[in-house]
Amino acid sequence: METARDGEPVVYVARDRLLEIMTWLKDTPGQQYDYLVDVTAVEFRDRERPLEVVYFLRSLTHRADVRIKVELQSSDELAVDSVWGLWHGADWLEREVYDMFGITFRGHPDLRRILMWETYAEGYPLRKSFPLRGRFSRSEQVRQALNANPEAHYSMEELSIADAGGDLPDDMRERLRRGERGTVPNSE
Amino acid sequence: MSKRTVELALATPGVDAEGWPARVPLTAPRGGGEEQEPPPDLTGEHLLVNIGPQHPATHGVLRLVVELDGETVVRCIPHLGYLHSGFEKLGEYRHYNQIIPLTDRTDYLSPMANNVGMAMAAEKLMGIEITPRCTVLRLIACEMSRIISHMVWLGTTSIDLGAFTPFLWAFQERERIYDLQEMWTGARLTTSLTRVGGLMADIPDRFVERLRHFTRTFPKTLAEIDRVLTRNAVWAGRTQGVGVLTGAEAINYSLSGPMLRASGVPYDLRKDKPYLGYETYDFEVPVGEHGDVYDRYLVRLEECHQANRILEQALDRLPDGPINVDDPRVILPSKTRAMSDMEAMIFHFKQVMEGVKAPVGEAYVGIENPKGELGNYFVSDGTAKPVRWRIRPPSFINLSALPKMAEGHLLSDLIAINASVDIVMGEVDR
After folding, report:
1. In this predicted model, what pLDDT tens digit does every residue of A125-171 receive, in sequence order?
2. Domain boundaries, chain B
3. Any idea of the CA torsion for B208, B213, B214, B220, to the nearest 10 degrees?
4. Angstroms from B181 CA to nearest CA on chain A
5. Which of B3, B77, B81, B68 is closest to A109 using CA atoms?
6. Directed axis angle between helix B132-160 and helix B165-185, to 10°?
7. Cα distance between residue B307 and residue B83, in whole Å
8. Which of B382, B385, B307, B317 minimizes the C-alpha distance to B353?
9. Distance between CA B327 and CA B71 in Å, rounded?
């Protein structure tokens, strides 16, 4: 445990015990961190340092804040347990972290990209290995944009993509289950 | 329950044998002819409707995919990202002062409050204490932003629900604040007001006078809007009991700002984690009790009154003195000094070329923006550019409760609920 420069306590927890500790923080009288302010991730310029997933918690009862961090070695699998079951506000926040950093949240009900589009193939934009102008060359990006079929976004398949359940075609459900985010025609 | 989607192909008339467009029969043929088919039984059939991204009622480039049973919303799936500009990534390649123009463009309906939030986070990281005059001026900027943001909200929401007049009144008031912003910063929208450690400019002559005139006359407009809307049967009918969230749900969905307070949770960062000396001002925090669209309207209307009160008090106590901290490492020397004094020139050069170095560490500052809690989170590794700049976007998080609120309501209520969230897509997508 340490203190950040703004005076808030920062607590590092082990990845395996995250959910247990979060549940304890939320439900224990005297703690009651019932409000999830934000979920984000940090990658340092020093590649040796692990990625951090940061949870900002607040207790509205006690008017207290705490910051929980989980360290993820980049050589390891980038995955933590989802806290969606505790705070539904984590839904989009975790999706954004997944979208921008490629960190998987186990147990999240609907982990899809949120700001980038479903077939985005360049990787995870906020990673330090991702160049500011994108991974593909400008000409490749233009070519893909021209080849893109925006009509497809309004097809019945795309419209129902968020259902994450029943009425998806079998092959598509299989593809989503495997974690593939779709392919861009003529990439590579 | 079957979830098969009904697709109704538009009747395309085609051409007849002679090449003329065939007319669509307006009435079904009677008698004679073949047997009429009975109308299909549509009970339990669902229809997928796509709203946006280019739709005036979605307040920007928000796209909603709605599954309807008749006119009732069964599911609502927001699709975002049409305005994604990668501000957080860009911030990692810029000096702290160069990030300020990016904050204008996130929540572009309250640019000055965003500038303040970002500068406060950077100052917290660097351990800078701003001057008393700067504190009061920043507070004035925040409350002016609250008024314009709520005025835009009021205007656009009333127009969504069919009332045109309040829109004109609200936008006239907003225009007056925009004139003041232009007077102060030279820009109406992209103000870039703050600098780390101070402000980009002091207020000009006659600013105080004109802002006082505004605070005197603004309550009259609020009273007119109140008279037109609050007891209006159409307005109440469209908003009361629509999009209800209980206090516990609002907390669970991490809502903030007027959305949280309309659900009966009395949490306001200005009272509970005071910054800029808000604890020394006399103002109330309105709290709703039903958590519906109507209560959000009442909360925002009352917040305008309170913002006006705070502005009056701030103008009364505006102290004289410098607006920038006396620290040549963070504040650029004046042009004259930079050109005549060797030391000032060195500081000028170092700041422009190298930027302001922040110590290793991290800082999060949340401020009560018109939309909710705007958080700025900086992580520094000791260089002049942050390792990570995170914006906690209030309207992004508030919008995530939209599917929950819209379920079971009519499609027309979805428009009212979406309007009540008060989203700005620039901030949602960043």
Report:
1. 998 888 888 888 888 888 887 877 666 666 555 555 544 444 555 66
2. 44-84+398-423, 96-323
3. 160
4. 30
5. B77
6. 150
7. 30
8. B385
9. 62
- Phi/psi at B314 (5° precision): -65, -40
CATH number for the domain whose boundaries are B96-323: 1.10.645.10
Is A60–B267 a contact, with Cβ atoms under 8 angstroms apart? yes
- Amino acid symbol at A148: A
pTM of this structure: 0.83
CB contact under 8 A, B363 and A46: no
- Which residues partner with B21 through β-bridges? B15
Query: Are the C-beta atoms of A82 and B425 separated by less than 8 Å?
Result: no
Using DSSP, state whether A38 is helix, strand or coil. Answer: strand
Helix (H, G, I), strand (E, B) or coil at A18: helix
DSSP state of A107: T
Counting every residue written for chain A, the total comes to: 188
What's phi and psi for A72, nearest 5 deg?
-125, 120
Specify whether the backbone of A63 is left (phi greater than 0), alpha (psi in -120 to 50) or beta. Answer: left
Domain B44-84+398-423: CATH superfamily is CO dehydrogenase flavoprotein, C-terminal domain (3.30.390.50)
Q: How many domains does chain A have?
A: 1
Q: Would you say the C-alpha torsion A135, A138, A139, A145 has a positive or negative sign?
A: positive
Report pLDDT for A145: 78
Q: Which amino acid is at B36?
A: Q
Structure tokens at A133: 């102008």
B102-133: pLDDT as tens digits: 999 998 999 999 999 999 999 999 989 999 99
Q: Report d(CA B22, CA A156) in Å as an integer.
A: 30
Of A35, A38, A92, the CB nearest to B375: A38
Q: Please answer yes or no on whether A45 and B252 come within 8 Å at the CB atom.
A: no
